[in-house]
Write a structure and sequence with these properties.
This protein is mostly helical. The protein has one domain (about 5-55). It has helices at about 5-15, 20-25, 35-40; strands spanning about 30, 55. A two-stranded parallel ribbon has the order 1-2. The chain is globular, with a radius of gyration of 11 Å.
């Protein structure tokens, strides 16, 4: 199953300390480059940063 996400559910789950739910349910989440930047790069040092099972979606167009 492929799961694509924007930043809101990722940030919200990380804020309540339940980011692990995504990994348990889906394993790998596909995110756009902008979401990767917002959640992983800007989230450096936060809970979500430790989970590396993100796959960056190819640019559309």
């Amino acid at each position: 199953m492929i799961v694509v996400s924007n930043a809101s559910p990722l940030v919200s789950l990380a804020a309540i300390g339940r980011f692990d739910l995504l990994q348990a349910l889906y394993g790998t989440i596909e995110i756009p480059q902008a979401v990767h930047h917002e959640v992983v790069i800007l989230g450096l040092g936060r809970m979500g940063r430790s989970w590396t099972n993100f796959r960056i979606a190819p640019a559309s167009g």
